[in-house]
C-alpha cells in the first residue's frame, strides 16, 4: 500500500524557549483520521571542521546538560539572525569557540537532525588551513563549559568507533568530509597465473 502524506489543519505554539518553540500540529490522514503531533521548532544549526595545515582538527570538549557529561565536538551552534548565511555562522562559531579562523570555508552538506520531531537543518562545513587568531571567547553568559583540544585527523575514525565522539551531528559532518575527501584506494594487482608452455 502506498504511503500518503498527513495534511496539516492547524498549528499552535504551546511553549517557547530561547532555544526552540514547541508546536502542537493538528493533522489529518485519509486512512488514519485526525491527530495531534508535537514538533520542536529550533532555528537552523551549523557545525564546522577546523583543519590545520598539520592535518589536526580543532575540537571542543564541552559539558552537555542533556547527558550530564562532556562530549568531544567540532565548533557549532545556532545560526543567528545576524549571520549572512550558514557559512558565516560556522566561521563565527569557530572563531568564538576555538579562536581559530580561515577564509577557506567549504560546504560539506546538510542533514535534518531529527525529522520525526524537528523541521530544521544542520549545515556542515570544512575550514581549511585554520590558524589561531585569538583566544576563545570568554563565555560571557556563563552557560558553557568548554576547552579547546586538537586531534590528529587520522585518529578521528578511531575516536568515533571507540565511542569517544558520540555527537550525531559531529559524526555526520565527518561522514560528509570523508565523502568529500575519500581515502586513497590501494590498487592490488591480481597475481598472474603461472605460464603453461
Task: Please provide a written account of the structure.
The protein has 197 residues and is of the alpha+beta class. It has helices at residues 86-98, 156-161, 168-180; strands at residues 7-16, 20-29, 33-42, 45-51, 56-64, 69-73, 76-78, 100-101, 105-111, 122-128, 131-132, 146-152. It has a 4-stranded mixed β-sheet with strand order 7-4-10-9. A hairpin with a 4-residue loop joins strand 5 and strand 6 (69-73). The chain is globular. Mean pLDDT is 91; it is low at 190-197.
Give the structure's gist in a few sentences.
With 197 residues, the chain is α+β, with helices and mostly antiparallel strands.
User: Based on DSSP secondary structure assignment, what is the total number of beta strands?
Assistant: 12
**H/E topology pattern:** EEEEEEEHEEEEEHH
Distance between the termini: 63 Å
The best one-word shape is: globular
What share of residues are in beta strands? 35-45%
Contiguous low-pLDDT stretches (5 residues minimum) are 190-197
Portion of residues in helices?
A: 10-25%
Structural class assignment = alpha+beta
What would you report as the Rg, rounded to the nearest angstrom? Answer: 22 Å
Strand order of the largest sheet: 7-4-10-9
Sheet having the most strands: 4 strands, mixed
Determine the mean pLDDT. Answer: 91
Instruction: Please work out how many helical segments DSSP would assign.
Output: 3
